[in-house]
Design brief:
It is a single chain. By secondary structure, this protein is α/β, with parallel strands linked by helices. The protein has one domain: Alpha/Beta hydrolase fold, catalytic domain (Rossmann fold), CATH 3.40.50. The chain is built from 16 helices and ten strands. Strands 1-2-3-4-6-5-7-8-9-10 form a ten-stranded mixed sheet, with helices on both faces. Helix 4 links the parallel strand 5 and strand 6. 43% of the residues are buried. It is an enzyme of class 3 (hydrolase). Its EC number is 3.3.2.9.
Length: 395
């Protein structure tokens, strides 16, 4: 991975140039994987099944062509800059439409800029994709600090608020005085914080995967619909069955990182397990996300050796009532907010809880398919909802 030598405020071109030795080392490590045993008939209940994992790793080693996807990324304008001592990598895809609206889009974990590859064209150039040119955006898609091409963080403290301040500075350096923010998964927290730290410039925040928790007030639970009660019940299942990754990464990320950094099979299994649980699929995550797209996402973690720093990000931003005093730590937002709800979101939001913390929800959409990585799973739904929300701010 190469970029020119910077001064601290410089924005410079970036090109992904992976040494062949790194790809050869990956294949060699995969070939030498020592596989664990497995209980019979366990399915996915204990994690990624051994037979599926072996087959997926074999495909990664023998058939997957990273150079193809490296070229796809390099066909997009990539840049880096240093903000608050941290290198920030980002895509900056400008629209040819004169009235395009700047929009900064933030991914979560274990995602990356790869999540948005299918939506970049339609959002920046709707004319060429059968859409209305008035819906065009200039897209800024950063890699989170500590994730992938932004490289590892070198100090603690990179929580949602600090990242939001970095995003505000990034948009200032790019010359955007009026812009929107969009985020999925952890990116919802960052985008929301961006609206709080830069309210004079952020015109609205659109989210998918917004997490909303009950405050503990019994009155808040009265009159919930059947759908809302089901979502609340799923929260208990999530905390019991699906929360283990968060507890490990938010308490002992360094210990976990030794296995993920040394074993590509380990890194692949860790991310694949999450994609199985958080996408709209039944048997394998490939029902929701193409195999090559999943592997390209994993590659950005593996090649940059950012398993440790991406895991550390969970230490920085408490996101449950058990981790923090939400009443004190979650500042109410009055910025216009749009919420897209997909049925396989990690925890689908309940509107009354969301409105407690976000006082100006002006757009709420519920979809019948899709999950946490909506831009990758259901790009058409994602594109349509982003366009619909931000139309109110154009003109």
């Amino acid at each position: 991975m190469t970029s020119t030598s910077p001064t601290d405020l410089e924005i410079r071109p970036f090109r992904l140039d992976t040494p062949q030795a790194a790809l050869d080392d990956l294949r060699d490590r995969l070939a030498r994987t020592r596989w664990p045993d497995e209980l019979p008939c366990g399915g996915w209940s204990y994690g990624v099944p051994l037979a599926y994992m072996k087959e997926l790793a074999a495909y990664w080693r023998t058939a997957y062509d990273f150079r193809r996807y490296e070229a796809q990324l390099n066909a997009l304008p990539q840049l880096t800059t240093t903000i608050d001592g941290q290198r920030i990598h980002f895509l900056h895809v400008r629209s040819r439409e004169p009235g395009a609206l700047p929009l900064i889009v933030t991914h979560g974990w274990p995602s990356s800029i790869v999540e948005y590859l299918d939506v970049i064209g339609p959002l920046t150039d709707p004319r060429a994709h059968g859409g209305d040119p008035a819906d065009a955006f200039h897209l800024i898609i950063p890699s989170l600090p500590g994730y992938g091409l932004s490289g590892p963080t070198r100090e603690p403290g990179w929580g949602a608020r600090r990242i939001a301040r970095a995003w505000a500075e990034l948009m200032r350096r790019l010359g955007y005085a009026r812009y929107g923010a969009q985020g999925g998964d952890w990116g919802t927290w960052i985008s929301r914080e961006l609206g709080l730290v830069d309210p004079d410039h952020v015109i609205g925040v659109h989210t998918n995967g917004l997490i909303s928790w009950p405050s503990g007030d019994p009155d808040e639970l009265s009159g919930l619909t059947d759908t809302e009660q089901a979502r609340l019940a799923f929260t208990g299942y999530y905390m019991k069955e699906l929360y283990g990754y968060k507890k490990i990464q938010s308490t002992r990320p360094q210990t976990l990182a030794y296995g993920l950094s040394d074993s590509p099979a380990g890194q692949l299994a860790w991310i694949t397990s999450v994609f199985k649980e958080w996408t709209d699929c039944e048997d394998t995550p490939e029902e929701a996300v193409g195999r090559d797209r999943l592997l390209t996402n994993v590659m950005l973690y593996w090649l940059t050796n950012t398993a440790a720093s991406s895991s550390r990000s969970f230490v920085e931003t408490p996101d449950t009532p058990e981790d923090a005093d939400l009443a004190a730590d979650v500042k109410p937002s009055t910025l216009p907010t749009g919420v897209a709800v997909f049925p396989r979101d990690i925890i689908a939001p309940i509107r009354r809880f969301a409105e407690r913390d976000n006082k100006n929800i002006v757009h709420w959409s519920e979809f019948d398919r899709g999950g946490t990585f909506a831009a990758m799973e259901e790009p058409d739904l994602f594109i349509g909802d982003v366009r619909a929300f931000f139309r109110r701010f154009r003109g």
